[in-house]
Here is the input.
Amino acid sequence: MPTQPIEEPSRAKPLRSKRAVVAGRVLVNALRAGEVNGIEALIRAKMKQNHTPFMIIRKSQLIKQYRRFRKGLPRVEPFYAIKANPHPQIIKTLLEQNCGFDVASAGEMRHVLSLGAKPDKIIFANTIKSAEDIIAARRARVRMMTFDNESELYKISEHYPGAHVVLRIKVDNDLSVVKLSMKFGADPEMAVPLIRKAKSLGLKPVGVSFHAGSQSKNIENYLQAIELTANIFAQAEEQGISLNVVDVGGGFPIPHFDGEIGINFERMAQQIHKQLRVFDENTTIMAEPGRFFAGPAGILVTQVVGRAFRNNRNYYYLNDGVYQDFSGIVFDQCKYEFKTLRRGKKFLSALAGPTCDSFDTLALDAEIPELYVNDVVYVKNIGAYSSASAVANFNGFAPAKIIIV
Ligand SMILES: Cc1ncc(COP(=O)(O)O)c(C=O)c1O
Here is the structure.
């Protein structure tokens, strides 16, 4: 029920109201009506028992994404990058599917081990590790880890002699939203010298990894990286070092908007699968998907706590913001589609978080109906890089409670 009068509604600008646009939207909406109704019924049901903000994590979606991945890339063993969302129930659900895990620290390693992950189904995929964390890996018998520089090799050989090391190479991250090659990866020309160095230090160089950049919409990043990796395998073989692990990293994209174009996992997987034929059947091929598994599982449900008219548009203040579960706007460079349970003509509006910081603004151009205090604003596909990077209690606002269904 409306709890507050409309403030200066006449000054809010209606969006494109042309019939053709509306007709197109009606068609698309009709196709998605089933999904929308299901999600909105779930939100309404959960609102009866819970205060907002809350994040619903759907196990069914996690399993669906896991199966899509396995089907699209049957030779590739996924190691879920838990940094995307380390919630215990997500890890347990993926464990039940026999998934492996990519951990970035000893903290993450302990977390997955405590939930039942086996050490040989874990890769310590941070090319820069503290000595303490390497020792923790040795004690836990997590022996596969990545590196991309010589200094790291000395550290690993000192604290974990015989560790299985995977060289991460630098590859193109063109069109990826988060460009990880800016910070990680050895130049491919340095690959063989580094692999030889690893061997000479008493480590076991087992393979090559790369990361095409997160939310990587450019299939060429993967195809070229696989070709580079195959060349390194051949060069290492010539030097008497046989490699047998290819780690194609993460980066597999998901749509954040309904009908978003340029994202087709199945088509992408088909080409990657084909390109991987260059490796024989004795090669273990693995990947480190994060967003692809956790993203679609999450639905964030917030409510409007206040509204104002400023800068020629309605501003709606939500009870979750960039310091909490919308942290992906900052750290993941993510843009979200804001949806409302309320229907009606849409207006360009601003959405902001609850803190006293003006930086805590979520969108200046959200296309939403006129809203009232207590109205629901929800976002789909927000399970990754959201609650995981939320700040505990900035301005006294806690991140959303997670509800697993
Ligand atoms: C080493 C490593 N592996 C895997 C991932 C997961 O990437 P994504 O969520 O894009 O699949 C990341 C993300 O930062 C990463 O740094």
In short: Residues 81, 84, 102, 125, 180, 211, 214, 249-252, 288-292 surround pyridoxal-5'-phosphate (CB under 6 Å). The first helix runs from residue 19 to 49. The chain has a mean pLDDT of 93. DSSP finds eleven helices and 18 strands in the chain.
